[in-house]
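Q: Hi! First time doing this. I have a protein sequence and I read that you can turn it into a structure. Is that right? Here it is:
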Amino acid sequence: MQRPLDVLGSSTDKKIIVRTKQSEHIMGTLKAFDSHINIWLDDATISGEKEVKLGKVLIRGDSIVYISPGK
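A: Yes, that's right. Below is the predicted 3D structure, encoded as structure tokens:
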């Protein structure tokens, strides 16, 4: 059985999708995270009516609803 942080660790340097409490879907390459699930993404974009490129972002763990593997 794997712990959630172990699963997240196996996703390092892979594309993930993050849904925030603000109903945003942010996709990017997971570069790092900590025990509070604060995550750092490279090449991040927000999808919606219009895709917005963000570049490098840090997302606070308390604003994350879920994290999913990217496409």
